[in-house]
Amino acid sequence: xxxxxxxxxxxxxxxxxxxxxxxxxxxxxxxxxxxxxxxxxxxxxxxxxxxxxxxxxxxxxxxxxxxxxxxxxxxxxxxxxxxxxxxxxxxxxxxxxxxxxxxxxxxxxxxxxxxxxxxxxxxxxxxxxxxxxxxxxxxxxxxxxxxxxxxxxxxxxxxxxxxxxxxxxxxxxxxxxxxxxxxxxxxxxxxxxxxxxxxxxxxxxxxxxxxxxxxxxxxxxxxxxxxxxxxxxxxxxxxxxxxxxxxxxxxxxxxxxxxxxxxxxxxxxxxxxxxxxxxxxxxxxxxxxxxxxxxxxxxxxxxxxxxxxxxxxxxxxxxxxxxxxxxxxxxxxxxxxxx
Length: 339
Hints:
Elements: H1 3-38, E1 45-49, H2 56-72, E2 76-80, H3 87-94, E3 102-107, H4 113-116, H5 124-127, E4 128-137, E5 140-143, H6 152-161, E6 167-170, H7 176-188, E7 193-196, H8 200-209, E8 214-215, H9 219-227, E9 232-236, E10 263-270, H10 275-290, H11 292-299, E11 304-305, H12 310-331
Parallel strand pairs: 1-2, 1-3, 6-7, 6-8
Antiparallel strand pairs: 3-10, 4-10, 4-11, 5-8, 5-9
Helix pairs in contact: 2-10, 7-12
């Protein structure tokens, strides 16, 4: 028997058998994933929240967790893992088993971290998968009453006449207030100096005293002071006006078209989570955020519920990362762990 005649046909036979076996295994994998999705969820879910209990990020996450518990028929347990500018919790989520039973709700600083801290222990776009954009909270540019500024155009004009003289406060480098101020500087061509503070309450107090000229806190944290006339609002960072401050224009309306710097929160899963489960979670998060209870609780934060598909949220996340990469590069911001 000649090897040249036998072994080619033998290899061909084995190739056919291997191909058939591989196809069968692949088919089992697809049907197994579909079956898992059909039975999902069969046990409680863990929701990692990279913030301390009681803060805005924690409150938002619990609104989502309560809604999902009702929608899915399984308890969604919040697991607070604060620290390291949310990096600790983000990394824990990125390294979790991608079976749909560990998810997380993370705020907009996740789009800032890749440019501010290039050596993260995880890759934001490769290790985390967007589920749904949950909602957004507008910030508001407020000024000291003693500054003599009534509009955003007034502020820009004053800042251009006094570069590096005016200041604005935030809770630290990379915080939402810092990013909003840096974007304002970049788009308006002005130089208002950033001063970090330990908390929003201190910032509001400094603006009221006139020691701090400008701040960009959330609407919720500044609303009482605005209504009391202790600080003056001149522009919202969102693309739409706030129901709580209907007479305050957006920054885009007030002279900087295209400006947007909101605090947003989104639901994420570890990469590798089966698509049918991601789609189910996305659908349920969106439905949960449309419920009257979620609307009421989220609205109390001065926020707007959203709900999106994984694809929509992924595109939004990438655009936010790109936007803040440009801001950080242009502003020369240096890494600093923020809360």
